[in-house]
Amino acid sequence: MIAIIDYKMGNIKSLENAIGFLGCKSCVTNQADIILTADKIILPGVGAFDVAMKNLKKYQIIEPLTKAVFENNIPILGICLGMQLLATLGEENGLTEGLGWINGTVRRFSFDDEKIRIPHIGFNSVDYVDKSPNLFEGLTKGADFYFVHNYRMICEDNADVSSWTYYGEKFVSGVQKGNVFGTQFHPEKSQSNGLKLLKNFISLSRDRVSC
Amino acid sequence: MLKNRLIFTLIYNNGSYMLSRNFRIQTVGDLDWLKENYNFNAIAFSIDELVVLNVERKHKNIDKFSDHLIQLSKNCFLPISAGGGIRSLEDGYKLLNSGVDKLVVNTPIIEQPELVTELARTFGNQCIIASIDCKKEQNNYSVYIQDGSKNTNLTLEEVIKKAEFLGVGEIYLTSMERDGTGQGLDMELIRKASHLTKLPIIASGGVGKYEHFVECIKDGYAVATANIYNFIVDGLIKARQFIQKQGIELATWDYHLTGLQNYFKNNNQVIKNNKTEL
Fold first, then answer.
1. Within the 122-141 window of chain B, which residues sit less than 8 Å (CB to CB) from chain A?
2. Closest by CA position to B170, among listed B103, B112, B121, B227
3. Catalytic positions of B, written as ranges
4. Is the dihedral of CA B127, B133, B136, B140 positive or negative?
5. pTM for this one?
6. Strand ranges for chain B from DSSP E
7. What residue numbers bound the domain in which B190 lies?
8. ipTM greater than 0.85, yes or no?
9. Where do runs of H (alpha helix) occur along B84-223?
10. Which terminal CB of chain B, N or C, has fewer other CB atoms within 10 Å?
11. Strand pairing class (A102-108; A120-128)
12. Domain count of the fold of chain B
């Protein structure tokens, strides 16, 4: 069973649809007992960094989530804002501390070139780094995924980066550290490319990713 | 590299789909009709984004619209934007809980500006699309709201600046005169808007043949078409191929019209081919 974390940060339906389509059960939840016994956890999210952290605290999700990931070794996938929350610090609407599971800061895109429009919206190529396990297994390097964001993560340690994408600059589009995974793009909105990645995440065996 | 976007727009009216010409609407069929006649899942796999606009003229029933979107989005794994009748933050939540990723606003930009700001603050500005309906009058573009029935008496520049100020993240720009005519997009309007904003632009109104996509997409704009008759059977798939043949890059993915579900259930082997198989 996949626990999809519910903290009122939008658009969970399509993730549920995608997981159901792949023949897997999911549960939209903020209950500690369900989070702690899930096979996998997905942290989705659309919205602002500060509001998201506030909501994670409000629904008392941080403690069970930390325990599930670091004591029970449950693989977690943060998507879009969900990935950004894995960072140490976010700069959206003032400085906010993130979960701090990946060393990095989340900053707004800033380009001198007038032609580069923000937000970054649309399908863009994702160049993945060969990792084990590899969420991109079965996909070619440069496969297209759907992005829609203003902010991106800047990682302190490139070893945590699982994929890069170019938009006015080379930025981190995926992170991976032990059993913690994140994608800036939306796999649930990336046609069959995204379904493949989700399938790979769902199929991870827990001992393969344990630290 | 960021790919160009080919977008399909469904015009929704009280459970049915419509054809629009200069904003006059005519019923085509309901969701079952769409699924039967169009193999909707195939359409969904041949476009980059889907937009669904509720054009109910009197009372826009957001609950019924949301229920409909849940059904529609069930086997669609692409970005979906929806709007028409969002009059509160609660309405925004309803749509976003129905498989929708982005909210489209039109009338509130003028009549409920504080709502647009609230939506953008809550869901992020990447989540809010300003739909701007334009009509050329005496060599200038006038902007209309309320399904094209009310002139705002504001210029295109004023409305774009206002929408930007309120915090929208994208502009869905429609030429009312070209809407449904198939005469081609109003490139003058699109270029004008593009000089006024740094936000991404989706151009709509007037696509009648594949060349119309190309002339707009090659300049980096996303293009939307709402004309289902022009794109009957595999029209959108062919449009995609046509655009790619002109050397314009579109996103690619494996395309399995039938048996996608089985494909994923049984698929444990490494798939090397990542080309769009059409």
1. 122-127
2. B103
3. 133
4. negative
5. 0.91
6. 6-13, 16-21, 24-30, 49-54, 80-83, 102-105, 128-137, 140-145, 150-155, 170-175, 201-204, 222-225
7. 6-266
8. yes
9. 89-96, 107-111, 113-123, 156-166, 187-196, 210-217
10. N
11. unpaired
12. 1
The answer to whether position B277 is within a domain reads no
Q: Which contacts of A57-65 are long-range, i.e. CB under 8 A and separated by 24 or more positions? A: A58/A7, A59/A6, A59/A7, A59/A8, A59/A30, A60/A30, A60/A32, A61/A5, A61/A7, A61/A30, A61/A35, A62/A99, A63/A32, A64/A32, A64/A35, A64/A36, A65/A5, A65/A35, A65/A41, A65/A99
Residue of B nearest to A193 (CA): B253
Contacts of A148 in chain B (CB under 8 A): 79, 101-102, 126-127
Number of structural domains found in chain A: 1
Q: For residue A208, give Cα distances in angstroms to A75, A176, B91, B93.
A: 10, 13, 43, 38
Cα angle A124-A87-B118, degrees, rounded to a multiple of 5: 75
In B, residues 192-231, which contact A (CB 8 Å cutoff)? 198-200, 222
Q: Which residue has the tokens 């081609």?
A: B184
Tell me how far apart the alpha carbons of residues A137 and A200 are, in angstroms, rounded to a whole number. 7
Burial of B275 (0-12, 13-18, 19+ CB in 10 A): exposed
Catalytic residue check, A188: yes
Q: In this structure, is residue B210 part of a structural domain?
A: yes
CA–CA gap between residue B3 and residue A191 (Å, rounded): 14
Q: Are A2 and A24 in contact (CB under 8 A)?
A: yes
Enclosing domain of residue A38: 2-209
- Residue B42 distance to chain A (closest CA, Å): 11
Residue B106: CATH number of its domain = 3.20.20.70
Each residue's pLDDT tens digit in chain B (278 positions)? 999 999 999 999 999 999 999 999 999 888 888 777 766 766 788 899 999 999 999 899 999 999 999 999 988 899 999 999 999 999 999 999 899 999 999 999 999 999 999 999 888 889 999 999 999 998 899 999 999 999 999 999 999 999 999 999 999 999 999 999 999 999 999 999 999 999 999 999 999 889 999 999 988 899 999 987 666 667 788 888 999 999 999 999 886 555 455 555 554 433 333 333 33
A120 catalytically annotated: no
Identify residue B197 by its one-letter amino acid code.
T
- Residue in A121, A124, A191 nearest the CB of B78: A191
Between CA A12 and CA A35 the distance in angstroms is 16
Instruction: Read off the pLDDT of residues A106-117 as tens digits, 9 standing for 90 and up.
Output: 999 999 988 898
Q: What distance in Å separates the CA atoms of residue A104 and residue B268, rounded to the nearest whole number?
A: 34
